Amino acid sequence: MRTKMLRWTAGRRALVVALVVTLTVLWQWASWSGDRGLSILYAACAFVYVSGAVAGSVLLSRWTWRHRAVAVVTGMVAGHSPAGESLMASMPFVPLGRRLFHAPRLWSYWVAGNVTEYDFVMPAGMTLTLLNRWREALEQALNRKVDWRYGNLLFTLRVIKAELPAAVAFGELARLGAGQAGELVFCVGWGLLGPVWADLAALPHLLIGGVPGGGKSVFLRQLVTWLALANPPERLRLAFIDLKGGMELNLFRRLPHRLRPVLRQWRECGSLLEELNGELDRRQAAFDRAEVVSLAEWNRGYPEAGLPHVVLVIDEMAELTAVESGDKAEKAARQGQLWLLIRLCRLGRAVGLHVVCATQRPDTDAVPGQLKANLPATMAFRVRDPVNSRVLLGDGHPEAANLPPMPGRGIWQVDGQVEVQTPWLDRAEAAALLASAYPELAGAGLRLVEPDGEGPAWGSER
Asked: Do 29 and 95 lie in a common domain?
């Protein structure tokens, strides 16, 4: 139940005014009539009033400390907002009404367990971007995690009294993940309010970045393992590009979901990207003829000719996207591959083609603007400086540079962003889980749309 603070404050003030008026009338009446009974009544009322004032002050002090976020936010906004800076400079000369207009007002608040939400009416000129810039300072002042949202003309501050775990086991989250709704659901990690889930089919592409040792490779490993365990080859196909020499993704080289062997050199990637773009074109043509607009709608309408989701996984994307080269032929080849990758990201969602890119060098060369604009979801682990953080999370978001040096700690960003501890899954455990689920570990064909455009059929071994 939300407490309406403005109405409560107005009612409290009206009650105080009524008590003061009552005491004044009783005093005047007692003085004029000389009635001893009225004098006693006045003394009793005065005692009750003073006692209530003392008790109210104590309760107000306790409330103010418990909800000190209100005072901290008021001070920050009044002192730093565009309107508040000039206001604070001339505070003694500013009428009270104008001060209230330029200061945030608490509209309501709500407490549920470890979470407290405050709805504020902010002064003109205050934006969600400005408030998010002060989030770190606010968290230090409150010793709590905070989150800002905006809706219905109110700015909502969520204060969370909880701590992230230092480590989360993959198996623990896998047990909790049973029954999650979605097509390609996986667990991002453990947030302050519990597990954070995502559906790759809805995202539909993902960028992962962070310094070596931050958790990027482990997150990629658990993501692919999760998808492979939850989806048989008939529903999911995987393509792998590992430009770190195959050291990480060769764990999945014998999965029945694979399209090709794991590619280890950037020169080998052109044919795979062309194949996936060709599949994109064939699916678009088939969907157009069938008058459907998504893979889910196609599979519902044509279950006998169902098509799988295709996920392209790229580790160390910088080796593929860094197009600058002194050799003109190499530069042209790299630019062509980058264009094919961007096209997959731009058009792949509706036809069920998804891209997961990881890099330990999140700069503008490794993550060009056109590519970043088509990667709507980001998993940012610790980076070296705020510039790298802004490349991953966007302007005004240096938070990834301030993450603690703890493996697996990252920031998940889709529409908003949340700090999480990602699942830990070592190579031996991942290999054992996959071997248990797919004991044959044999290749299988890819169900694709035939190149002649007649319709979907079982393709040849790729």
From this structure: yes
Question: In terms of domains, do 319 and 450 share one?
Answer: yes
More confident position, 366 or 36: 366
Surface-to-core class of residue 194, CB atoms within 10 Å of its CB (0-12 exposed, 13-18 middle, 19+ buried): exposed
Q: Is the same domain home to 155 and 174?
A: no
What is the domain count for the chain? 2
Count of Cβ atoms closer than 10 Å to residue 261 Cβ: 14
Average pLDDT, integer, range 419-441: 88
pLDDT over 70 at 49, yes or no: no
The pair of structure tokens assigned to 428 is 């031996």
Q: Is 359 a domain residue? A: yes
- The answer to whether the beta carbons of residues 386 and 339 sit under 8 Å apart is no
Residue 221 lies in a domain: yes
Query: CA 66 from chain center: how many Å?
Result: 28
Q: Are residues 119 and 244 in the same domain?
A: no
Give the amino acid at 432.
Answer: A
CA distance 101 to 57: 25
**Cα-trace Rg, the chain:** 30
DSSP 460: P
CB of 392 within 8 A of CB of 350?
Answer: no
Distance (Å, whole) CA 419 – CA 235? 31
Within 94-225, strands assigned E span: 105-112, 115-121, 145-151, 154-160, 168-169, 185-191, 194-199, 206-209
Q: Which domain holds residue 104?
A: 3-160
Q: Residue 457 corresponds to which tokens in the numbers above? A: 């059929």
pLDDT digits (tens, 9 = 90+) for 370-416: 899 999 999 999 999 999 999 999 887 888 998 988 999 999 999 88
User: 227 with 206: CB under 8 angstroms?
Assistant: no
Q: What does the pLDDT read at residue 441?
A: 55
- pLDDT of residue 321 exceeding 90: no
Q: Kindly state the average pLDDT of the residues 182-195.
A: 90
Entry field: residues in the chain: 462
Which of 97, 127, 160 terminates a domain? The answer is: 160
